[in-house]
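re: ur question from the group chat, yeah i did fold both. here u go
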Amino acid sequence: MTGFTGQGTVRDRRSVLLGVLRLSPRLLLGSSLFFLEHSWAGAQIEEPLMDSVRTALGSAIANAAPPVPEFVDTDSRLDYLRWLGKMSERLKQRKPDFDTRREFLQTVWYESKRAGLEVSLVLGLIQVESNFRKFAVSPVGARGYMQVMPFWSRLIGDGDAGKLFHMQTNLRFGCVILRHYLDREKGNLFLALGRYNGSRGKAAYPNAVAAAQRRWK
């Protein structure tokens, strides 16, 4: 995927940064893990859901175990293992523990394929949204790896936004939401990414995801 061109939002990001710098030192140095691992992500907009999206998101709440990929033949399995080895090396600096890294990549691969998305796209989006931090929280409250807004847990399930920090739940929500936006935008990735970030029509976020995706090809 190539980058997108257009006007960026550098001024907007500078305004956000200045706002953070104005916060009191006590808040900036507080013990809250969520605050320390914040993200600069935007926000999805609450909207009515199709039944298929509602069902897919709902199933994520009940499915707690990490998925195990299945393959139709030996070659497909070997391709996956080669991919897993390469991505594991690239992710080592951000996730030093091998088992944690393998489980994360396995789940990203599974949920991306399940939603019909390129795995490299999802990894690029995660890099931009949270820099692979499980407990990242944005200034507007988006949570986890894929920065899912809490209202999704209210629309689906019992409204417990804390579940969005569960790895598979967060990744499935994020992938299904992005798939939903792609379908709404008739396959236009630029507009779908903007909708995911709450910045539809602006180029800065799609450009950032496109640049990050190249690392995970």
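okk and heres the other one u asked abt
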Amino acid sequence: MRPLTDHTPKPLLQVGGKPLIVWHIERLARAGITDLVINHAHLGAQIENALGDGSRYGVHIRYSPEHPSALETAGGIAHALHLLGDEPFVVVNGDIYCDYDFAHLPARALALLVNHDAAHLVLINNPPHHPSGDFQLHDGRILPTDDRRLTTDDSKLTFSGIGVYKTALFSHIARNAKTPLAPLLHAQIALGKVSGEHHTGRWLDVGTLQRLEQLDNELRTSQNVGNV
């Protein structure tokens, strides 16, 4: 995303007339999810300056800066645990666009408690830049690839970057430790403790200038015809 991200953090890049992260915030607010924690590293002060306390969007935002460098997904979550409380919480990657209805997530969080699961993941169709996918989904469960319940129809899907997690999944990670998320998820999948769902709507990883421009054009066109 350079040179744009030399001076602007990716979540603040404009698409459809507003920062990418604001699309998430507005959808979360409409779903009644209003207590937000944003972790940031690269040019993070710009994010705090742009969004403030979130009141203009009808939410309350607190921030978890990662210093001196980014801690990867699980490390960033562990770093912010003191702000997240004890209940299951939602994580949304700041560099994606997705029309998933966040109003589904409170029920998914409750199901984690009832089913004694560690996580719930939203999966999407494999994009062209990631054709091999990440996880296999069968009857609402994410299964190891050698599970006997898998059939030839259970092809791999891609993780959307939207998930619900229990705090216990991250409580063993030292604060400020750089830690990826995937190994933690695979360990819980092996234990049968991860549920999932397949979202078939719009999703885009805004990881290139071409995809950024594509999304910007799509959103502006949709706004012009009153669909967004």
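fwiw on the second one: The longest strand covers residues 156-165. The two ends are 25 Å apart (CA to CA). idk if thats what u expected
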